[in-house]
């Protein structure tokens, strides 16, 4: 893979091997002077030196694998912490340009420093921060309001399907025995070549962008509702200011170089989402008892979004048959969206061997916890508020300035800030290769810091602009984002990959194809339902509107 490069230097830091390649235009002496030494690599904090996408081979024992690869010979294999880095291969074809060419490549330093550096508990914490997202599972009571109690069956089936595909992805991480596929697109290339790489790359970028737009919009609605609770509806911050505040938070968090460097905050994010579920469930139970005892009354905005009108809490589907059908399609997709997790490869690459077993341990822990949390929030929320529940559960909690209400909303915002940043890494690492100086011995130099601040700021401003522009129909927008990015990566592609490389029996192969087909049909129907809902209920809404959180009703928008 380095056949066109006159110089390649390998050095070891405290956390792993660093491979530094110099471009052909650089002389041997200049490349030697600019390459980082072993002493420098331990303190390098940026996402890495640009290079080709790589697979890294590990052996579960301490014996180096003698097979030599195109990038590094087997003689460079070293046993570190009970594992052997035995070979490095380039997943890009030889005819592709190396370094910062058009073909997006992965950073070298961050990849080697992170691979195999954590245990399964760290993976579980990271996966929990990405899966158990309050902004996602807060829509579950709203989904039940569109499906009635039958929605619990859809919740269980969606959980089982995503649980199963995540287990499949854990095994696919090393499907060809010793090679670790550290990115989703690496896995796609290893199975289907360049088309597989491109499909996974496009869907992952679309999924990350859609997820971050939705999460930022949900967090802004929480901030505005808090402002209304303390300042009143007339003096509260506008939705656009709340979106800008969340964007400023991301400006700070975006300076975390990699997913691995966020390991210090992901445990807090996971605890935060559990605390959110507890606070929300307690407040929901109190509200439900008050609504049933007649000591409280549910209110919604009228058609002009000016006055609050009282409504009765019911659990029956009162809308027309057409409304129920399209709303049901959207609700099914929203339930599946709440289990989104399309960074299996990236997260599992951090786990030390045995990779598959540790990865499955983390998945088992996270998804069992996920089902309990989701079931509690969905059942209590729908039981308490019925069809009057908001698209985001915290917006239904009252009083709006109550301690548990504000705590739940702030926990959602704090967790969303970390969750947003984790998915943004998918886009950041591609921008790294185009913007950072690939051969600076100090990647935290002012030049690289300024470059990183510039392109992360552009990314954040773009996401904030889109979130400000879209109408705040969170459940409909979430369904559209889910179909465009999550369904393919979470439900369809893993099943097709397994059939392609694991050669299952006829019955299992047919079951995988049937499940993938069902996901395609559900995605198309959900997309149609979301577009229909937006077209019929928000035809008079303008872009960049200052949406009132109280207008976020689930089943019928008054």
Q: Let me know the number of strands.
A: 8
Roughly how much helix do the residues carry, as a percent range? 55-70%
Largest sheet: 4 strands, antiparallel
Q: Give the C-alpha Rg.
A: 25 Å
Shape: globular
The N- to C-terminal Cα distance equals 62 Å
- Spatial order of strands in the largest sheet: 4-5-3-6
SSE succession: EEHHEEEHHHHHEHHHEEHHHHHHH
Strand residue content: 5-15%
Structural class: alpha+beta
Low-confidence stretches: 1-113, 554-558
Please state the average pLDDT score: 74
State the helix count.
17
Short description:
The protein is α+β, with helices and mostly antiparallel strands and 558 residues long. 58% of the residues lie in helices and 7% in strands.
What does this structure look like?
The protein is an alpha+beta fold. 58% of the residues lie in helices and 7% in strands. A hairpin with a 6-residue loop joins strand 7 (298-301) and strand 8 (308-311). Helix 8 (184-231) packs antiparallel against helix 14 and helix 9 runs antiparallel to helix 15. The radius of gyration is 25 Å and the shape is globular. The protein starts with 7 loop residues before the first strand and ends in a 21-residue tail after the last helix. The model is unreliable at 1-113 and 554-558 (pLDDT under 50).
């Amino acid at each position: 893979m380095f056949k066109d490069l006159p110089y390649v230097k390998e050095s070891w830091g405290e956390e792993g091997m660093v491979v530094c390649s110099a471009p052909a235009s650089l002389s041997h002496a200049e490349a030697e002077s600019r390459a980082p030494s072993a002493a420098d690599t331990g303190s390098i904090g940026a996402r890495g030196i640009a290079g080709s996408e790589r697979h890294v081979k590990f052996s579960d024992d301490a014996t180096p694998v003698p097979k030599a690869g195109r990038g590094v010979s087997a003689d460079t294999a070293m046993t570190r912490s009970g594992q052997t880095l035995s070979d490095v291969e380039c997943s890009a074809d030889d005819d592709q340009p190396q370094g910062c060419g058009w073909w997006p490549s992965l950073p070298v330093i961050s990849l080697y420093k992170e691979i195999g550096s954590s245990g399964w508990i760290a993976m579980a914490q990271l996966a929990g921060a990405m899966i158990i997202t309050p902004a996602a599972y807060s829509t579950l009571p709203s989904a039940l309001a569109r499906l009635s109690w039958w929605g619990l069956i859809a919740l269980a089936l969606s959980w089982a399907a995503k649980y199963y595909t995540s287990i499949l992805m854990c095994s696919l991480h090393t499907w060809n025995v010793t090679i670790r596929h550290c990115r989703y697109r690496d896995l796609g290339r290893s199975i289907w070549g360049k088309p597989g790489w491109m499909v996974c790359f496009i869907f992952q970028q679309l999924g990350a962008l859609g997820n971050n737009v939705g999460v930022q919009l949900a967090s802004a609605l929480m901030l505005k509702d808090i402002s209304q609770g303390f300042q009143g509806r007339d003096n509260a911050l506008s939705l656009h200011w709340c979106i800008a505040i969340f964007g400023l938070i991301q400006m700070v968090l975006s300076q975390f170089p990699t997913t691995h460097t966020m390991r210090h905050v992901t445990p807090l994010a996971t605890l935060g989402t559990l605390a959110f579920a507890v606070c929300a469930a307690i407040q929901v139970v109190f509200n439900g008892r008050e609504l049933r005892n007649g000591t409280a009354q549910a209110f919604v905005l009228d058609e002009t979004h000016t006055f609050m009108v009282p409504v009765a809490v019911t659990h029956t589907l009162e809308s027309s048959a057409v409304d129920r059908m399209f709303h049901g399609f959207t609700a099914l997709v929203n339930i599946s969206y709440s289990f989104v997790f399309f960074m299996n490869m990236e997260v599992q690459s951090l786990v030390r061997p045995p990779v598959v077993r540790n990865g499955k341990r983390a998945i088992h822990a996270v998804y069992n916890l996920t089902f309990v949390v989701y079931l509690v929030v969905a059942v209590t929320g729908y039981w308490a508020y019925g069809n009057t529940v908001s698209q985001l559960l915290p917006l239904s909690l009252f009083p709006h300035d109550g301690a548990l209400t504000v705590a739940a909303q702030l926990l959602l915002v704090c967790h969303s800030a970390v969750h947003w940043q984790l998915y943004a890494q998918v886009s950041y690492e591609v921008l790294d290769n185009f913007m950072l100086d690939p051969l600076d011995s100090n990647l935290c130099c002012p030049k690289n810091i300024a470059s990183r601040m510039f392109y992360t700021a552009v990314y954040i401003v773009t996401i904030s602009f889109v979130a400000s522009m879209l109408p705040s129909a969170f459940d409909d927008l979430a369904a559209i984002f889910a179909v465009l990015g999550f369904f393919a990566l979470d439900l369809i592609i893993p099943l097709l990959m397994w059939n392609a490389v694991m050669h299952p029996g006829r019955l299992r192969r047919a079951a995988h194809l049937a499940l993938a087909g069902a996901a395609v049909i559900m995605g198309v129907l959900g997309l149609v339902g979301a577009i229909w809902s937006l077209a019929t209920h928000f035809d008079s809404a303008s872009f960049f509107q200052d949406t009132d959180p109280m207008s976020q009703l689930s089943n019928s928008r008054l």
